Amino acid sequence: MYTVPDQTGRRILITGANSGTGREAARRLSAAGAHVTMAVRTPAKGDAARGDILAEFPMAQLEVRQVDLADLDSVRAFAAGLLFEDEPIDVLINNAGVMAPPERMTTADGFELQFGSNFLGPFALTNLLLPLLLRGDRPRVTTMSSFAAHVGRIRFKDLQWTSSYNAWAAYSQSKLADMLLGMRLSELAVQRRWNLVSTIAHPGFTRTNLQTTGPNLGRDKPRRGRPGSDSFLIPSQDVEHGTDPLLFAASSPVVSQGGYYGPGEKFGLVGRTTRVTLPRSSRGVDLASSLWSVAEDLTGVTLPTDALIS
Fold first, then answer.
1. What one-character-per-residue DSSP string does 259-309 give?
2. Which residues contact 116 (CB under 8 A, 6 or more apart)?
3. Nearest residue to 107 (alpha-carbon basis) of 137, 69, 76, 138
4. Which pLDDT band holds residue 213 (cuts at 50, 70, 90)?
5. What is the Cα–Cα distance from 71 to 90, expressed in whole angstroms?
6. What is the 3-state composition of the chain as percent helix, strand, coil, each rounded to the nearest 5?
7. 260 is annotated as an active-site residue
8. Mind listing the pLDDT tens digit for each residue in 98-123?
9. 2, 165, 171, 261: which is the annotated catalytic residue?
10. Average pLDDT over residues 114-140
């Protein structure tokens, strides 16, 4: 299991930090000395997770703040609060997400739920917090993608899946979009000579509540079991090991600008963290920059003036 290096004095913000990989990241980063902001949609769940971590590590520095990535007004309000406090952020971990709701659902702004929550919300948050990040110590943005991105494609003609909704294809698109977010941010950091590193991670097949929560949205009777976990005997791993790529991408001193990290064994589903080759699905000419421009139009959020100075 990856050992997080000393994080004393670093301020780290993690979305979706009340469960799964986000909670485990908050646990291990705070145990390593970081001041962790647990950005969650439901504060009560965040408080419960914080309490559990403090019971194990009483000296951990953790605060819970509410943000709903499926509501751009909530994202703006959350970012405004941090900007008002004017404390630099050293690491932003875009971790929160939703997976494969059975029926097409929408965000508060009318976007398809997965595209809005998994990509547009984190896109807006990242841009809004750039002024604080660029003032951080060796700042880094780490974005959680998924192995599903390897088979995803960006449907520019119908990003919101208004026709022929397919839960898993929509999920794959949203996680490919996350990958492209990390790639484009890396390109911008190099072009503008920012002291910021953008990395991307994927957890392989990690057993978390993500596999059950999304597919049960809108159902009167929850389905049992996890997709892909039955008779096919697909390799999977626990959340402690599944969080390793995210933690490595967010804290290792040897990551590369734009690096993509995931498990290195059994088809990339489990095992020790390694740098992964970006998939063919992400390599279209101007694909990342084109999606970034579309996201600016959809969210109304662009690079802040502070971030335009190279």
1. -EEEEEETTTTEEEEEE-PPPGGG-STTHHHHHHHHHHHHH-----GGGG-
2. 69, 70, 106, 107, 109
3. 69
4. low
5. 25
6. 45, 15, 40
7. no
8. 999 999 999 999 999 999 999 999 99
9. 171
10. 98
